[in-house]
């Protein structure tokens, strides 16, 4: 089950955010759970990912308000109300929690970009029709938690974790018919920036008719892919390439012709290492595995759900507007 310790960002007064298009918004309480996986690990001067805790809470419902809030220096919890249209990929400064209110908060047309940013939570949002990536975690960004979101029709990737990014958790998201769901490692030529980085936990996500990259990994180790529900993925599930180290554990694959690529490489990328254990395969091909991988338990503790229970858990809990 979703084992989380819930912390309430309770407010007793109306907070005014300087510069938010001159509009004061009443901030309502937002419930945001504590992270797990790599986003919870104390490293690089942070105790884990705390987002905007200790800062003000503001509610935004216009493009200008949102863009001003994510560009504000210092901790802040940004509550997104309704549908907000943005373009391209907009930069997010460190120490932010961006959380949708209710079940209908939508970011449409664009996405979020992390460039040397850190300590950010993105939660309970639906991303639609992003003209590039919906979420790009790059350029040494670290401690990013992407949780309980829904991704629909981005032109490029739903989530990219690239260029030396580290300590990222992607949990309880719904990838609804996306094409390039998740890339970890920018290119085959990025060894100098990516080796020793790209540590990521990918768990309890619903890869629902999405085609590929769940994730596609270059160089990163360990990348821990566990308790996800893969359903009807046309091209493949997980690809470990360019000597990446990926643990695929406790997942449920249904009608996935190629659940895993690794020792044969993929496309133009050379082979990677992949360990698979405790997975369920229904109407699916074999998982290509080989080599040894650093155990995630050397970084954090976790409890694995039985793979047979994953479809029920994930369809009941993944995506925006879900508990």
Automatic annotation (TrEMBL):
Q: What SMART domains does the annotation carry?
A: Amb_all, PbH1
Q: Which GO terms of the molecular function aspect are on file?
A: pectate lyase activity
State a GO cellular component annotated for this protein: extracellular region
A GO BP entry is:
polysaccharide catabolic process
Q: Which InterPro entries match?
A: PbH1, Pec_lyase, Pectin_lyas_fold, Pectin_lyase_fold/virulence, PEL
- Please report the stretch or stretches of sequence annotated as the Pectate lyase domain: 53-259
- Tell me the first and last residues of the signal peptide: 1-26
Q: Fetch the PANTHER family from UniProt.
A: PECTATE LYASE 18-RELATED, PECTATE LYASE 21-RELATED
What's the name of the protein? Answer: Pectate lyase
What is the originating organism of this protein? Actinoplanes digitatis
